[in-house]
Design a protein that fits this description.
The chain is an alpha/beta fold. The chain has two domains: about 130 residues, Ribosomal protein L4/L1 (Ribosomal Protein L4, Chain: A); about 45 residues, no CATH class. The chain is built from seven helices and six strands.
C-alpha cells in the first residue's frame, strides 16, 4: 500500500497515512484522461449560436423589380444572401455538443490523474486547512513554505477562511472533494489535499 507524509501548514511532519493503491497508485491511463478532458470541454459549449436564413429574415416578400427589361440580373427577393441585410447562407445553427462517459471510465480517469500526481511527487497532504482568520498574505506564505505554484486545494467540507484567503491568489483554486474533475486537476501542477478529503475521495472512487 502507498504511503505519504502528512504535514501541518507550518510544513512540519505530523503523521503518515496509507493511500489506496486503487486510487493513488494505479496505472495511469492517458487515453482516458484525454477523453475525459475532451468530453468536459465539449459539455461546456452552449451551442446556441444562430443566424437567420433567407426564409427567416423579415421583409422582402415581393420581387424588387420586374423580371426583364432593366438590364440587370433577375432578382426574386431582397433578403437573399447577397443583399445587405439578407439571410446568411450556410451559417451556424444551434447544435448540441454534449458527450457522455460511463461512470466506470470517468472514475478510472480521475484515479489516473491522482496517481500521476502521487507518482510525480506533486501531491501534498496536510492534516487540515484550519486558518485562524482570512488572510491572503498568510496563505501565500504557506504555499511559499511548501514551494508550490499552480496549486489545486482540495477540501472535504466548507472552509470559509481558506476560500476567502485563496480566492485572489493567482493560479490557485479551492475545490471540494466531491467536485473533483479532470479539467481542473490537469490545469494545475500540484494538489494540496487535507487528510479528511483523501478519505472522502477514496470512499467515492472505490465504491
Amino acid at each position: 500500500m502507498a504511503t505519504i507524509d502528512v504535514f501541518n501548514l507550518e510544513k512540519a511532519k505530523v503523521d503518515e497515512m496509507d493511500l489506496s493503491d486503487e486510487v493513488f497508485n494505479t496505472e495511469v491511463r492517458e487515453y482516458l484522461i484525454h477523453e475525459a478532458v475532451k468530453i468536459q470541454l465539449a459539455n461546456r459549449r452552449a451551442g446556441t449560436v444562430k443566424v437567420k436564413t433567407r426564409s427567416e429574415v423579415s421583409g422582402g416578400g415581393r420581387k424588387p423589380f420586374k423580371q426583364k427589361g432593366t438590364g440587370g440580373a433577375r432578382q426574386g427577393c431582397i433578403r437573399a444572401p447577397h443583399y445587405p441585410g439578407g439571410g446568411v447562407a450556410f451559417g451556424p445553427q444551434p447544435k448540441i455538443y454534449n458527450l457522455s462517459m460511463n461512470k466506470k471510465a470517468r472514475k478510472a480517469a480521475i484515479k489516473s490523474v491522482l496517481s500521476l500526481f502521487y507518482k510525480g511527487n506533486k501531491l501534498t497532504v496536510v492534516n487540515n486547512f484550519d486558518l485562524e482568520s482570512v488572510s491572503t498574505k498568510s496563505f501565500v506564505s504557506v504555499l511559499d513554505r511548501f514551494e508550490l505554484t499552480k496549486t489545486l486545494l482540495v477540501i472535504d467540507s466548507d472552509n470559509k477562511n481558506l476560500v476567502l484567503s485563496a480566492r485572489n491568489i493567482k493560479n490557485v483554486k479551492v475545490l471540494y472533494a466531491d467536485s473533483l474533475n479532470i479539467f481542473d486537476m490537469m490545469k494545475y501542477q500540484n494538489v494540496m489535499i487535507s487528510q479528511a478529503a483523501v478519505k472522502k475521495v477514496e470512499g467515492a472512487l472505490t465504491v
